Structure formats: structure tokens, C-alpha cells
Automatic annotation (TrEMBL):
Pfam families in alphabetical order: Cation_ATPase, Cation_ATPase_C, Cation_ATPase_N, E1-E2_ATPase, Hydrolase_3
Protein name: P-type Na(+) transporter
Comp. bias regions, Polar residues: 546-555
PROSITE patterns for the chain: ATPASE_E1_E2
Keyword Transport among UniProt keywords: yes
Protein's membrane topology: Multi-pass membrane protein
Organism: Pleomassaria siparia CBS 279.74
GO BP field: potassium ion transport
Record-stated family: Belongs to the cation transport ATPase (P-type) (TC 3.A.3) family. Type IID subfamily.
Domain of life: Eukaryota
Gene3D superfamilies in the cross-refs: Calcium-transporting ATPase, cytoplasmic domain N (3.40.1110.10), Calcium-transporting ATPase, cytoplasmic transduction domain A (2.70.150.10), Calcium-transporting ATPase, transmembrane domain (1.20.1110.10), HAD superfamily/HAD-like (3.40.50.1000)
Major site of localization recorded for this protein: membrane
């Protein structure tokens, strides 16, 4: 019994539910293999497991002479040049004797030293091959491997080449900032496969040449006979020969969170049986939880189940095919390398921005050519600088830095929602997800067992509703035949009391409330106690409402987490008894009873019995619980009654519940209670009732699933559990609706074995992929990811075990559970610290917010670039006395606007809050990405307007103002007496573009709403909401304010203005700039009004509502919604 005071995973039962569901998951049993050796009994954990088939096969005793599998002496013949037979890949379908024959080994004596050495040379060491960790150089390369950085590097080189050290230095600083910020964000290196190596056992007990030896696990070979005891790590994949109460922990591999009982006596007929159901095998890396066993090594190293997972992790999507020629392989590797360097691999946003950077680079070269052509290819110093200046104007130098900072801020926000980001780009990627493939236990469910229902003849049906803290007996409420019970004043009937006594006394668990400190006790006394049934808090803040009993009067309960020790099944039953004031310790203190005997749970009888002496009544009470099909034959009821019990149990099992039978009888004092009398004591029992437990969905899961569906995201459940349980939970949380039949008609629900047998062509021809896949294996999840990718869908995959790592790595966004294995966390891009599905929905919402904001600041940055290009290209016509083109903006002004003014405004836009309808829209198109038609058209309209107004401001001052028309000489390189007009015109242009960019930062907050009505839900008077709108984003407000204030010293500070920025102080020219701002706002507002009037793009809907979204996806609109 271990402490169970935090959310233990309880998914993935080790046996099928009661009733006939098992037939499709467990291969039919054939002739048993070897009987158990006669070791002293070792009892496994005391809890009834999930029920096996109702009518289990009964194998009569077999005399050793009938089966040579009882310690057979197979004479080995040497086989040095052959690997083990292919049939060993389905060793679960063979008896241990057949496996020994395949491997040429004598089970009693093991391999000889020479044979073991020969096989070691043939098969190699029993080790999982490690992988090269991600070096610091690779992290650095990842930061440089994007087209925009490469373009900046080339621009920097050109600037140094023409001795423009100021511009080159600024660009160098930008590049270094981008690399440093990105490097720090991605510093954590991936060591996924190396984590697998920690699962291997250092040494093993092996029979060789008739003697038990301890050797290094790395030296194991197929055919070795291995002995295992409690606490040992299984060193390789084994076909078990015998066992005594052997249980192994396989959660890391199969998702089976409960210890798995080993059954070496049986063989299976299904070659494709799921890994978790091959109970006659033990798998490398699993730990012996109880008992002892002996097994034959069938595979080692990379051939084991863990090794296969390591192999899948080593594979990358860009690997060349095996049948490719050498030349094709070289070309594939070269092409993949070029893609990596150019940043053409990664998330959709990364790829889109890299392609965009290449486009800008081509455009920059084209514009430079235009500049050189306009000057008749007389590429002197001034012309070359002008050409580079135009090229620089095309490139948004600060884009990478702004994007990195925005993503980092998003990662911090997501951490508050219990989502830790390992790969920063995944934040943006998760916003475009179309499908979520989620595990069940602990993610969709609470990860702790709770009693759901009890059917007691003569009493009725007890149901536990709305439990938020499974360990807290005051959480939720209980109904009897649909009527809610007030348990504070409820007096149970004798039948119900017997039922509750049985589940409380036939129980070894302990459930304890939080204990208060002295200060908390004093505070508690001053407050009115709350009614636990009416509270709406989660497990971490649930008010304790455990009934005051003899054992709890001395302690004061406070807000906090209840603790429990014991097996999940027994804890669930104990909590139900505590709801009726029948805690086990309280009963022992209150009743005059004495513990007389205990018959622990045994895998052969599937039940547990305790006997108490009632000192007052003068008799013995026998309390029994266990699997229905095993207790059924011991009940003192008619055959017709047994049929009804079975039908009731099967009905509950079909709802995904784990069913136990509760029985009781009385014995006279002095009855022999010795171990040999167990069959007699457990016979002739009086049937009391059936009790069903399950792992309940998290309270917030149903709402989160619905949010996904409203947002156009399809949720799939991929679980290692049985179909019945999976379907029940899927219905509870809304993944399946009531139209899906229990018989699993169609493809909405499939087992992994059925799904794995389908070809890719068959899967692609399906109208939709299954929503629930039960009994999943690692390859099933990988196959699902591949199927989604072939449909051009973008998927999230969750997981917690080693078995989930390949799928996590191949999914677009792998999300590991915080309580999961190191391997899963290292293979993922995100980690959920609370293992909660609702946190994934928060991550999607944050991703969509980030995507929207990326569009906003991209729009802002590109508007500035378009305006500058227009200004500089047309500015080629502005000739000075020497017939040289005059810069309307100096190179430093361009860099200042791009890197300082625009950058902080863009960061502010990146911090915009999520739009209220962000989760009511379908996922954005991955083909289109951030560059939608609306963004492209808007940026050109805004950019052309801004460029034209900047050009007008320069022209008015340079040609229409006092002394206009004379552009001086040599005014591009510095100030002289002839440059007064040019420097004032340049300062006016700088002021104009700065003011326009400041206004644009607020205009692009929404692409169709007016600046004077950005938030329609605002209660401010019409037209006055602009004041609350500009203040709503504080960072953006202060960025605009700072940009406005800093503009004045740049214009007026001596030396700085003339020598650095190449402009000078202005006066009346401010009027020109402010008139341009008014014209600009009027033009933009007019364009937005046109979009709203004619329903163009985002102008179609003012604001999407939830009912609109639900109607779009075909969901029934709920009149009453749960509070979140």
C-alpha cells in the first residue's frame, strides 16, 4: 500500500470490464503452459481488479506428464549463425516450452557460457542505443536558420563594405539581439532517447550452465533464463515460465497505471494483441511490484518494446527512404539541409515568415537594381548608399526580435495557466490546431477512482453526483432512486447499513482530511462553517465536510487536499462509507467488534474477505467483496437471481464502470477460521448488492471539449483503456453524443487492433477519423498522427508514458503531462503541469490570441516598409544641384523608425488581449497562414496612403515652402550651408511618418472596426470610447506616448539632429505633419467603413457570438451553461 495523496493515475485497467467486452481484446485461451512452481505465496496489492469475463475459463489440473512444459529438458543444439525465429515476435501465442524450443535452451539449466558468448556477438549488447543530444551549436544554428536573419547578415555585410559603420553597427546589434533572445528561450537541449537508458536494469539474476549467476543486464542474450523478485527491473522482454503473485508496473510503456498481473500459464491466439494485454510477457524497463517470476529472454536491446520506441524516436520526418539510391539520398540530405538553413522547416508561421523574408530579399535586390538603373549604373558612394537604404527600407529588421519577445510574453502567460512551453514556436502553432488527440486518465478525467453507483436489493440505487474531490466525502451529493439525501440526518436501513459496513470493514485504505494548525483553528472558529454539498471549488480548495465522528472530533478540518493511503478501488469504497458516517476507524471504535481473520485478495479467487467477531451479538460476521463472476458461485441465491445479478453487472460494465459484488454472512462463534477453511468460509454468502466505481471526468472537461467543438476543433480520445470505459467517458465529456450507439456502429469508436489493420488508403477513404480509439499502442497513436497529416490537418497529441513519445514527437504540437515520464516530456513541445485537458484549451486560446496579434504587428511593420519604399523610390526624382538623388529619409532615420519606434509599438500590439470571439471562429487556414487577403490588401492601402502623405510632406517643405526648390549639394552625407531646406523637409517627413505610425498602432487593433468604436461592448457614449480603447492596452499606450515624446529631442537636439539623423529643427512644418495625420485617419476610417458596409472580410460580422459558432458547427445551443 502506497500513499495516494496526490492525483494517482488510474487509467487503463489491467483486465477487461465485466461482461462480454473482453472477447475482442483478449485472445482466447488455449491449453495452459507450465503450472506454477511451488513457492510460498506472495500476496499482490489488496484490491479487486477490474472484472475479467463473467464466465472465466476453468482449467482442470494437468498432470506434469501431459505437458512437457514443466521444466522440460530440451537438448540444445548450437545455432551461431541465426537470429531468433520470427515467431518470437508473437511469443505471447506460444507456450514457454515452444519458446524454449525456438531459442534452443534448457529451461532448467539455461545457456552455456560459450553459447551465451556466441549469441552476444550475434545480437549485440542488451542496450537501447542512445542518441546525440542537441548541442549548443545546434541551438545556435536554429536561431540563425531563418531567411530573415540571413538577409540582415547580408545587409550588414554590405553596410560594412561601404564603410557605413553606424548603419552596420545598428543592424549587427539587431542580429545579436535576435540570436541571444532566441538562444536563451531554446537553451534546454533535447535528450529524449538518453532518458530511455535510465529505464534499463544494471544487473540480472540468470541461470547459466545450471547455476544462478548475477551478470550485467547488458550481457543478456535471447534464451537466457531470468529470475525476478519484488523491486527488480525487468532487464529485457521475457516470455514468463512461471510466477507467484507477480505484478509489474508498465505505465511507462502501455499506459496501464495499475499494476499488471502476470499470467504465464496462458497463451493467446491473437497475433496482434495489444502490448498491455500480453500478460504472459514481461517487458524491459518495467518494475516488479509484487511476487516473483521466471522468464525466458525473447528480445534484447533495440528489439524490445522500449527499443522499438527508441527507434521510432530516432526517425525524423525528413529521413530518406530505404529503397532510395545513393545519389537520391545525398540529394535528399542536401535539400533538407538547405531547407533547415533557410528556415523552411518548423511551424506554419516559421515557414511562412522564412518564405516572406526570401521574397523581401528578392524585392530588395530588385529595388536596388532600380536605384542603380535610375542613376545609369554609375554606382558611386552616394548611389550605393541610396540603393542599400532602399533595400533596408524593405526589410522589417525588428520582426524577429518582436516575434521572439511576443512569444516569450505568451509563454509566461501560458505558464500561469499551467502550460510550460519547451519550444517557443509551439505557442503560435497550437493556435492553429484543428484536431486534439487526448489521453483519458488524469487529462480528461480526475485520475482518481470514485464510487459512481450501488444497486442494493431492498434499498434501491445509490448514485454519487458532482464529485470534485474524490477523497472528500463531503464533495458532491448522494441520491437514492433519484432523490437527493441529506446525509447529516439520514438513518440507513439495516440492509444499507450492512452494505456500508462491508465496504468499510473489508478495506485496508485510510482517508484523512487536511489538519489545521493552531492559527487556522482559531481562524476557523470565527467563521461560519460552509455546507460542502453546495460548494463549487476544486480539489485544492474544497471545504472539508467530513462528518464529525469519534475519530475526528479531536482534529479540525481546513481547506486543502484530502489524503488517502491504499489501493484506488478500496479508497473509493471507503469514501462512500464515510459519506454515511461509517469510516472504518470509526466503526472499529464505536462497535463492540474484534478482528478475527482476513483472507487477502488472491488472483486465483478474485475476492477479499474479513471476519469480525461481534462480541455483543455473539456471532462472527463475514464481509466479502470481489469480482462478480467469482463471488457469484459462492452466493446462496437461486439460479434465476444469479442471472439477474449478471445482467445488472453487465449493464453497468457497458457504461464503463468497474463492478464489484458485495456479500455477507454470519457464522457461529468458534468456527474454524484457518487458511485451509477459506473455501468454506467464502461459500453460502448472502448477496447484498453491486457497487460500481470509475474514474470521473474532471468538472471542467465537458465545457472545455465543447469550447473546442465550438472553435471548430475535433477532439479525439486515444486511450489504453477498454472500449466500454472509453465510450462512457467520451459520452460524459461530450466527445461522443447520444446518437453514437453502444455497439460502436460505424467508425466513431474503434479498437487499436481494428484501426491498425486498416491500410492508409482505407483510412484516407473514411469520411472522418474515429473519435475514440481504445487499447492504443504507440504505433496506433503514430498512425493517427500520420492520418491527420495526410488530410492536411494540424494536430495536438497528449501523452505521459514512454509509449507516447514517438507520437508526441511526430505531432505538430506534442503536449506531455507534468506527472508523466521524462521521455514524454523531452519529446514534447509543451508540458501540462496540472495534467488537465482544460489547460490545453487555454493554450489554444492563447495561441489564437498570439496569431491575431502577430497579424497586427506584421501589418504595422509592413505598412511602414511599404511607405518607406514608395517614399524612397519616388524620391529618386528629387535631384540636387549635382543631379544626385536626395534622401527623403536618411538611413539612420529609417533604422530608427524600423527598430525603435515601430518595434515598441509592435511589441505593444503583441500584448493585445484576446478578442472576445477568438474561440468562436474556426481554425485559421494553414495554407494561407498569417498573410490573409485582408492583411495583404490592407497593408498596401495603409502603406500607399502613408507613403503618399510622407512624400507630400517632403514635397511641400522642399518645393512649396519658403526658399523651396533648391535641394543644395551633398546633403545626403552631411550638413552644409546649402542643405537647410533639405534638412527641414527631411525632419518634416520623419515627424510625419512617426506620427502616422503612432496612429496606425491603434488603427490596426482591429481590421474593420472604427478607431472610435473598437470595443462595441463598451458602455461609453458613442465616439467617446476611443479614450478607453487607447488606454486598454497599457504597454501600447505608453509606447505611443514615448514615441511621441522622443520625437521632439531627435528633431531639436543639436549635433544629434544634424550629424546623426541628418535633419534639423522645424517650426511651421509641424502643421504639415498634423494635417497629414488627419487626412490619414480619414482615409483609413473610410476604408474600414466600406468593409463594414459591404461585408468585406472581417467586416462581415461585428462580433461572433457563441450561439452563432454553435450553430455553425451543428451543436445544440445550451440554455443553461455551467459556470467555469
Amino acid at each position: 500500500m502506497g500513499e495516494d495523496n496526490i492525483l494517482p493515475a488510474v487509467e487503463e485497467s489491467t483486465e477487461p470490464p465485466i461482461c462480454g467486452h473482453s472477447s475482442s481484446h483478449y485472445g482466447p485461451l488455449t491449453t495452459p503452459g507450465q503450472p506454477l512452481h511451488h513457492h510460498p505465496p506472495v500476496h499482490p496489492p489488496v484490491h479487486p481488479p477490474v472484472n475479467p469475463p463473467v464466465n472465466p475459463p476453468v482449467h482442470p489440473p494437468v498432470h506434469p506428464s501431459v505437458h512437457p512444459s514443466v521444466h522440460p529438458h530440451v537438448q540444445p543444439h548450437t545455432r551461431h549463425d541465426a537470429a531468433p525465429s520470427k515467431s518470437l515476435t508473437t511469443a505471447h501465442t506460444l507456450t514457454a516450452t515452444q519458446v524454449a524450443q525456438e531459442l534452443d535452451v534448457d529451461i532448467s539449466n539455461g545457456l552455456s557460457a560459450a553459447e551465451a558468448e556466441s549469441r552476444l556477438r550475434l545480437h549485440g549488447p542488451n542496450q537501447v542505443k542512445g542518441a546525440e543530444g542537441l548541442s549548443l551549436w545546434k541551438i545556435l544554428l536554429r536561431q540563425v536558420s531563418n531567411s530573415l536573419t540571413l538577409v540582415l547578415v547580408m545587409t550588414m555585410g554590405l553596410s560594412f563594405g561601404i564603410n557605413d559603420f553606424i548603419e552596420a553597427g545598428v543592424i549587427s546589434a539587431v542580429i545579436i539581439l535576435n540570436i541571444v533572445v532566441g538562444f536563451l528561450q531554446d537553451y534546454k537541449a533535447e535528450k529524449t532517447i538518453q532518458s530511455l537508458m535510465n529505464l534499463t536494469a544494471p544487473e540480472s539474476n540468470v541461470i547459466r550452465h545450471g547455476a544462478l549467476q548475477k551478470i550485467k543486464a547488458a550481457h543478456l542474450v535471447p534464451g537466457d533464463i531470468v529470475h525476478l523478485g519484488v523491486g527488480n527491473i525487468v532487464p529485457a522482454d521475457l516470455r514468463l515460465i512461471d510466477s507467484m503473485g507477480a505484478y509489474t508496473e508498465e505505465a511507462f510503456l502501455t499506459g496501464e497505471s495499475l499494476p499488471v498481473e502476470k499470467t504465464p500459464d496462458v497463451t493467446f491466439q491473437d497475433d496482434n494483441l495489444s502490448t498491455g494485454d500480453r500478460t504472459n510477457l514481461a517487458f524491459s524497463g518495467s518494475r516488479m511490484n509484487a511476487g516473483r517470476c521466471t522468464g525466458i529472454v525473447i528480445t534484447t536491446g533495440m528489439q524490445t518494446e522500449v527499443g522499438k520506441i527508441a527507434h521510432m524516436l530516432r526517425q525524423s520526418g525528413g529521413e530518406e527512404k530505404k529503397d532510395q539510391s545513393l545519389l537520391a539520398k545525398i540529394w535528399t540530405r542536401f535539400a533538407n539541409g538547405i531547407k533547415t538553413i533557410l528556415g523552411l522547416v518548423g511551424t506554419p508561421l516559421q515557414i511562412t515568415l522564412s518564405k516572406f523574408a526570401l521574397l523581401l530579399f528578392g524585392l530588395a535586390i530588385l529595388l536596388a537594381i532600380l536605384v542603380f538603373s535610375a542613376n545609369k549604373w554609375q554606382v558611386g558612394g552616394e548611389v550605393l548608399i541610396y540603393g542599400i537604404c532602399v533595400a533596408v527600407a524593405v526589410i522589417p529588421e525588428s520582426l524577429i526580435a518582436v516575434l521572439t519577445i511576443t512569444i516569450a510574453v505568451g509563454a509566461k502567460a501560458m505558464a500561469k495557466s499551467n502550460v510550460i512551453i519547451r519550444v517557443q514556436a509551439a505557442i503560435e502553432a497550437v493556435g492553429g490546431v484543428t484536431n486534439i488527440c487526448s489521453d483519458k486518465t488524469g487529462t480528461l478525467t480526475q485520475g482518481r477512482m470514485v464510487t459512481r453507483k450501488a444497486i442494493i436489493p431492498g434499498v434501491g440505487t445509490l448514485t454519487v453526483e458532482h464529485t470534485k474531490d474524490p477523497y472528500n466525502p463531503g464533495s458532491g451529493f448522494v441520491t437514492l432512486d433519484g432523490q437527493r439525501l441529506n446525509l447529516d440526518n439520514y438513518e440507513p436501513s439495516p440492509l444499507l447499513e450492512t452494505f456500508l459496513r462491508t465496504i468499510a470493514l473489508c478495506n485496508l485504505s485510510k482517508v484523512e482530511p487536511p489538519i489545521a494548525s493552531d492559527d487556522e483553528i482559531n481562524t476557523k472558529e470565527e467563521k461560519e462553517p460552509l455546507n460542502g454539498d453546495d460548494q463549487d471549488t476544486d480539489a485544492s480548495t474544497q471545504q472539508s465536510t467530513c462528518p464529525t465522528t469519534a475519530s475526528s472530533q479531536s482534529r479540525t478540518e481546513v481547506d486543502g487536499v484530502w489524503k488517502a493511503n491504499g489501493e484506488p478501488t478500496e479508497i473509493a469504497l471507503h469514501v462512500l462509507a464515510m459519506r454515511f458516517h461509517m469510516k472504518r476507524e470509526d466503526l472499529l471504535n464505536r462497535l463492540d467488534i474484534t478482528h478475527a481473520a482476513e483472507f487477502a485478495f488472491d488472483s486465483t479467487v478474485k475476492k477479499m474477505t474479513v471476519v469480525y467477531q461481534d462480541n455483543q451479538a455473539g456471532h462472527l460476521d463475514v464481509y466479502t467483496k470481489g469480482a462478480t463472476e467469482y463471488i457469484l458461485h459462492a452466493l446462496d441465491v437461486s439460479e434465476s437471481e444469479k442471472v439477474k445479478i449478471v445482467e445488472t453487472a453487465e449493464s453497468m460494465a457497458r457504461d464503463g464502470l468497474r463492478v464489484l459484488c458485495i456479500a455477507h454472512k454470519k457464522l457461529p462463534m468458534g468456527t474454524d477460521l484457518g487458511p485451509s477453511k477459506r473455501p468454506v468460509i467464502e461459500n453460502g454468502l448472502q448477496y447484498i448488492g453491486l457497487v460500481a466505481i470509475y474514474d470521473p471526468p474532471r468538472d471542467e472537461t465537458k465545457g472545455a471539449v465543447r469550447e473546442c467543438q465550438v472553435a471548430g476543433i475535433t477532439v479525439h480520445m486515444l486511450t489504453g483503456d477498454h472500449p466500454g470505459t472509453a465510450m462512457a467517458i467520451a459520452r460524459d465529456v461530450g466527445i461522443l453524443d447520444s446518437t453514437v450507439p453502444t455497439a460502436m456502429a460505424g467508425t466513431a469508436v474503434m479498437t487499436a487492433s481494428d484501426f491498425d489493420q486498416l491500410s492508409d488508403e482505407t483510412i484516407d477513404a473514411m469520411e472522418s477519423l474515429p473519435l475514440v480509439v481504445a487499447r492504443c499502442s504507440p504505433s496506433t497513436k503514430v498512425k493517427m498522427v500520420a492520418a491527420l497529416h495526410r488530410r492536411n490537418l494540424f494536430c495536438v497529441m497528449t501523452g505521459d508514458g514512454v509509449n507516447d513519445a514517438p507520437a508526441l514527437k511526430q505531432a505538430d504540437v506534442g503536449i506531455a503531462m507534468g506527472s508523466g515520464s521524462d521521455v514524454a516530456r523531452e519529446a514534447s513541445k509543451m508540458v501540462l503541469t496540472d495534467d488537465n485537458f482544460a489547460s490545453i484549451v487555454k493554450a489554444v486560446q492563447e495561441g489564437r490570441r498570439l496569431f491575431d496579434n502577430i497579424q497586427k504587428f506584421l501589418m504595422h511593420l509592413l505598412i511602414s516598409n511599404i511607405a518607406q519604399v514608395i517614399l524612397l523610390l519616388i524620391g529618386l526624382a528629387f535631384k540636387d544641384r549635382d543631379k544626385q538623388s536626395v534622401f527623403p529619409l536618411s538611413p539612420i532615420e529609417i533604422l530608427w523608425v524600423n527598430l525603435i519606434t515601430s518595434s515598441f509599438l509592435a511589441i505593444g500590439l503583441g500584448m493585445e488581449e484576446s478578442q472576445i470571439d477568438s474561440m468562436y471562429r474556426p481554425p485559421h487556414s494553414l495554407k494561407v497562414g498569417v498573410f490573409t487577403k485582408e492583411l495583404i490588401v490592407d497593408k498596401f492601402i495603409y502603406g500607399i496612403c502613408m507613403g503618399a502623405l510622407c512624400l507630400a510632406s517632403f514635397s511641400i517643405v522642399a518645393f512649396a515652402g519658403p526658399g523651396g526648390g533648391d535641394l543644395g549639394s551633398g546633403c545626403n552625407s552631411g550638413y552644409n550651408d546649402t542643405c537647410g531646406i533639405v534638412f527641414r523637409a527631411r525632419a518634416t517627413t520623419y515627424a510625419t511618418i512617426t506620427l502616422l505610425l503612432l496612429v496606425t498602432a491603434w488603427e490596426v487593433k482591429h481590421f474593420s472596426r472604427s478607431l472610435f468604436n473598437l470595443y462595441p461592448e463598451s458602455r461609453a457614449p458613442p465616439g467617446l470610447s476611443i479614450f478607453s480603447s487607447v488606454w486598454r492596452n497599457h504597454f501600447l499606450f505608453w509606447a505611443v506616448t514615448a514615441g511621441f515624446v522622443v520625437m521632439f529631442p531627435i528633431v531639436y537636439m543639436p549635433i544629434i539632429n544634424r550629424d546623426v539623423f541628418k535633419h534639423e529643427a522645424i517650426g511651421w512644418e509641424w502643421g504639415v505633419s498634423f494635417v497629414c495625420v488627419v487626412i490619414y485617419i480619414a482615409a483609413i476610417e473610410s476604408w474600414k467603413a466600406i468593409k463594414r458596409r459591404f461585408g468585406i472580410w472581417s467586416g462581415k460580422n461585428k462580433t461572433l457570438g457563441q450561439e452563432d459558432a454553435e450553430r455553425r458547427v451543428g451543436l445544440v445551443v445550451e440554455n443553461v451553461r455551467e459556470k467555469k
